[in-house]
Amino acid sequence: MEEDFSVSVPCSSLAVDSVLRMSSAGVIWGACFGPFDARRLGLSGSARATFIAKTVGQCGFSCGLFAAIFSFTHCGMQRYRRKKDWVNTLAAGVVAGATFGAGTRNWKQVAGITGLFCTLFQFAQDSRSV
């Protein structure tokens, strides 16, 4: 039987855990995507190594920052509403998506899609297999 750690563990611990996990995933993604993109740009030597290191750092930082914003918003909504449901996930996804989409032309679309994906993931996580 699975234990629900979100009840007994403080929000700050959950946020740190999610930041570490997502930062690690971002570093792995950057390490896989960086060499591909460097080759596409025609870089070689030290310029290639610098580009790959920069890509790894940017991906790790971005994923970690997204996880931090999402986790703290999700915990805050859960505490404020005193409910544990999909609305908290949707709100946290929209806030995190709006934060990252603020630099784009269509931040409302980024926020909405991020909230939708986070909510769908929550539904999939909460569903029970037969």
Polypeptide structure, described:
This is Outer envelope pore protein 16-4, chloroplastic. It is a multi-pass membrane protein. α2 packs antiparallel against α3, α3 runs antiparallel to α4 and α4 packs antiparallel against α5. The protein contains 5 helices and no strands. It starts with a helix and ends with a helix. It is elongated, with a radius of gyration of 17 Å. It has one domain. The mean pLDDT is 85. The protein has 130 residues and is mainly alpha-helical.
Detail the topology: elements first, then pairings.
Blueprint: H1 5-8, H2 11-41, H3 46-81, H4 86-101, H5 107-126
Subcellular location: Membrane
Membrane topology: Multi-pass membrane protein
GO molecular function, one term: mitochondrion targeting sequence binding
Keywords, separated by commas or semicolons:
mitochondrion targeting sequence binding, single chain, 130 residues, Outer envelope pore protein 16-4, chloroplastic, TIM22
- Percent helix: over 70%
Please tell me how large the radius of gyration is. 17 Å
- Number-wise, the strands total 0
Decide which structural class fits the backbone: mainly alpha
**Average predicted local confidence, pLDDT:** 85
Distance between the termini: 15 Å
Organism: Sesamum alatum
Membrane topology: Multi-pass membrane protein
Main location: membrane
Keywords: Membrane, Transmembrane, Transmembrane helix
